[in-house]
Amino acid sequence: MGQKRNLDAAAQDASTGAQKRRRQYTEQDAKLASMLERLADEATETRLAAAKELVLMLSDEPSADVANKALTRLIRGLCSPRKAARSGFFIALSETLRQLYGPSRKEIPDFEPNLHGLIKLVAELTKTEGRASGQEKRDHLLGRVFGYKAIIQSSILVQPTAPKECWANVLEELYIISQQKSWVREECAMIFFEAVKAIAAENGDEKLVQQIVEGLCKHGLAKTPEGVAIWLAVQSAFPKMELPGDVWHKQDPLCTKERQTLANVMKENFAKAEEAENGKKVKSGSSQPTLNFAWEVVMVSFMQRHGAGDSGVSEFSKFWTDIVDNNLFSASASPEQKSKGLQLLSRMLASAPQWALLSLFSPNLMRCIINQRNGADRYLHKPAQAPLDEMRARVKRNPEVAAPIVEGLVTRHGSLNFDKITKTKTVEGVLGFAGGSSLKELVLFFERLIYRPEDDEDQKAVETHRRTVSDMMILLVRSRNLANPIGDDDWLRTLLEVFTKLAYFSPTGSSQTHDMPVPSISDASRQLFQERVTSCLAHLLSSKLDTEMMYPVFVVTAIQKFSASETLSLAFKADKTISKAVKQAHKQLSEVLAKEAKAKEKKKPALRAFKLLYSLTMVQVYNGDADAVMILEELSECYGAAFQKGEKDTNAFQLLTEVILGFAARPSVLFRKLAEEVFTVFASELTPEGLQSMIEILEKKESASGQQDLFDQQGSDVEEDEEDEEDDEVDSDVEVVDAEGSDVEMADDVSGDESENDEDSEAGDEEGDDEELQKFDALLAETLKTSVPNATGEDENDSDDDDADMDDDEMMALEPHLTKIFQERQKVNSKKKENKNAKENMINFKNRVLDLLYIYVKQQHANPLAMDIIMPLLQLMRNTTTKQISEKAFGVLRQYFDSAKKGMPEPPETSVVLAMLKDVHGEAAKAPSKVFAGACSRASLFLAKILVTKKDKNFEKIVDVYADTLKKKDEDPQSKIHPLFFTEWIQWSFAPRKQK
To answer: Which of 84, 293, 452, 479 could lock onto 432 through a cystine, CB 3.0 to 4.6 A?
Structure first.
């Protein structure tokens, strides 16, 4: 019993003790817990708001219990493994320490600890207990580092009242951690680095910084990347401070004599680097995947010290080569080291001054990028993309730096075909974002590359080199648009002058050496540069960047200016007739420019149109186009009739229409835009004869016979070079017919007839090919006295007693016959190619004419003359074998009908419109396509609207026409009219008069 009573008493005592230890959970505790919870939130705004709330609470005379509890929880929170906890608790702890220990603190009765106790508290609360895992140990060690960092960053140890030994104790703790754990050394070094800058900014005590340097040397960390960064920071912030003289030569890690040692230190190859005085070995931290902050500090320090002069550029180039290129990108460098080198390059590209950028493109580095980007299976394929992306981003932020980046990529240790080799669009992107003075620099740089190719021995290699460089110049022009305008066009004028010299001139004997291309420009390259001139002008016109039409004039003026130079000789040799025509054209162009300068705004469009016609036609003359001379003569007549006579001459405008159609017939973007620009100005002057000329083009067949009828010539009028077909699309201004797209809005659905026609045409071509091949095989077999293979692949007369092989004399006798057979076969193939080219030319020409009609109906929808296009376009839709032409014709009709809502045409006689309505109905019965029926229906209703507006009981006449069409449909079983034609009429006839 006694034993039991003793146990009960003990239990009662324990219960009483527990009651004594229990405390009440207050509202303030709940508020503190909420703040601490939000400090670990992943949202930065939430963390900052919670830290601010905590600091405000502690500034409102808190109790010692609350202050102690907040301090303890914040230190423990630094050890949390949660994603954002350490960041949030660190910010809150730094501000809390400043609040509790700073110079403006308020005394809190019974608050502990003091600064000595605070340092011990951080060490105690960040210790691991029991058998902690490796991750837990890492989290607690990082918590301790961040605890000491908060103490230093809060500046409570550098205030005059703070005990000096506290500063030394914190430094010692951090140095010990740095020496023992290499993976946390960089974080500790960042604390010292920022402390040096903070002390310098606040004009603090140099002795505090001196202790940092002494700690580096004491613990053998001076010759580490982090030690170098701290050393350089001290040198910069405290230039008069006496530093240890036995670590670096002249106390300078950047000294030339320490170059190799510094390279080994930065690479963390401590086995080769000189050891510290105390002989302590430093663990390498090279396993870290991210770049050490010390690299950027070293580079920035070197650039700041040497400046932007020529000597500074030279010194930095050598420094970069020694420390980075021959170090991180050497043949023996590991992939991890090369990855860090690529990270360093990205950072330098983002922040380095313009004068230093070119030095970054060193040989080993560029070889690494090209090799790694060349194959998707390369180990650093993706990391090598990061600096390329940064190049474009830097130029986008600062367009002035484009020139050195492009130069580094395409010359020196890069490649002219850098984008192609790396399968990126780096150079293209940089050229697209280039701006300011870099544009002029790039043009002059490209000019030097053209004049002095790297390989000047192989003529073919030289031509390829010049083609590639000119492609980049074209990219520079084509990157300009309304969103990315030309700006100051001095660079563009220089570019056009460069192309003009190369395209049309040769240096004379009196030229300076630097003005003479080596080797000289070949005929092929000269033609290439002529195409480049055309491409530039085409883009400037099509992108609406040359509304004044001045750049074609600039090219012509430049040709005239250079022709008078003693150092240049015009490559174009012309007879007296051509020279006289060109001279007259220059004179009239000058007159147009003078009139434009004095003219009112209403008259300027017409003058600009003639300015464009004259200048581009003269460019074609210099390009050697024989037809261009005749066009100049026609232009002279048009110009005289339009601006020098009192009354307008309709024949002149008819002639002008023919000139415009001549330009439209050319498969070139430039001449298509020229035709459109000029036709837009003179659309109101289009005569019935001019319109008929356009309609006649649409009525021709899309074949060689149609082309022959139209141009009155044999074969195609456009010769194509097989090599040009293989060139990149940037090489030429020639426009390829695209059946998938159009400048005019197309129908939403596609008729079956046109597709069937295309298929039938292709099938017919294939059958023709097979037939020709069979004839060739038969003729060849007859000549050789062999059998023709049958469908099974066996000879028809296969037998065991075939003739013996021919002897040499028999073969020689057959040679003339075989030659003749193969010549005939070649003629057949050539004819097929001509037919194919002719079809493409006709399709292209019809497309351009439809573009012009689209402009016409959009402007002149109220002109009765526009009604004449309705029937030809419907017939074109039905007869064409090209789906694109059919859709485009429907698009023109639709634009006409939609535009006419703003103003209907008023034809002179009702009978004319009524006759046209009957013709439309007759056309509708000739094809079953729903799309074609829809086009005929819209045309019929359009004409019906015109008749209704003229009244005179026209509605009854319209009903009679529809009734007659319906009767014919019933009487003629061959009628193909679609029901849609009548259903749309019924819907329209029942609609209110105002909606018709």
So the answer is: 479
Instruction: Name residue 582's amino acid.
Output: V
Locus of tokens 């010194």: 315
Handedness of CA 833, 836, 840, 843 (dihedral sign): positive
Range in 49-53, 110-114, 298-302, 884-888 the model is least confident about: 110-114
Least confident of 217-231, 313-327, 945-959: 945-959
Can you read off the two tokens belonging to residue 773? Answer: 């091949």
Residue of 836, 817, 741, 809 lying closest to 779 (CA atoms): 817
Distance of CA 973 to the CA centre of its chain: 59
CB 791: neighbour CB atoms within 10 A? 5
Q: What is the pTM of this model?
A: 0.81
CA distance 233 to 199: 11
Task: Tell me whether the omega of the peptide bond preceding residue 404 falls within 30 degrees of 0, making it cis.
Answer: no
Using a 10 angstrom Cβ sphere, with 0-12 exposed, 13-18 middle and 19 or more buried, the burial of residue 414 is: buried
Task: Please give the Cα distance from 224 to 240 (Å, whole number).
Answer: 23
Does residue 934 contact residue 980 with C-beta atoms inside 8 Å?
yes
Is it the case that residue 271 has pLDDT exceeding 80?
no
CB 359 within 8 A of CB 368: no
Would you call 248 exposed, middle or buried from its count of C-beta atoms within 10 A (0-12, 13-18, 19+)? Answer: buried
Residue 73 near residue 36, CB atoms below 8 Å: yes
> Cis (ω within 30 of 0) for the bond into 113?
yes
Q: What is the DSSP string of 120-177?
A: HHHHHHT---SS--HHHHHHHHHHHHHHHHHHHHTT-SSSTTS-HHHHHHHHHHHHHH
Q: What is the pLDDT of residue 859?
A: 94
149-179 residue pLDDT tens: 999 999 999 988 889 899 999 999 999 999 8
Cβ distance 171 to 211 under 8 Å? yes
E strands, 701-830, in order: none
Tokens representing 989?
């006839």
**Residue 424 in 3-state DSSP?**
coil
Map out the domains of the chain as residue ranges. 28-162, 177-306, 347-658
Distances (CA, A) of 986 to 12, 934, 941, 992: 104, 14, 11, 12
* Vertex 94: Cα angle to 89 and 98 (nearest 5): 145
Number of helices and strands in the chain (H, E): 42, 2
Tokens of 890: 């429907």
Please give the backbone phi and psi of residue 381, each rounded to the nearest 5 degrees, phi first.
-60, -50
| Contact assessment for residue 183 and residue 205, using Cβ atoms and an 8 Å cutoff | no
Region 463-469: mean pLDDT is 95
- CA distances (Å), origin 970, targets 429, 933, 961, 967, 974: 65, 17, 14, 5, 10
Query: What 3-state class would DSSP assign to 746?
Result: coil
**Closest C-alpha among 551, 430, 453 to residue 499:** 551
Distance CA 179, CA 978 (A): 91
Give the CA distances from residue 644 to residues 33, 218, 358, 572, 621, in Å, rounded to whole numbers and listed in that order: 93, 96, 59, 32, 25
Specify the DSSP class assigned to residue 60.
Answer: S
**C-alpha–C-alpha distance, residues 515 and 653, integer Å:** 46
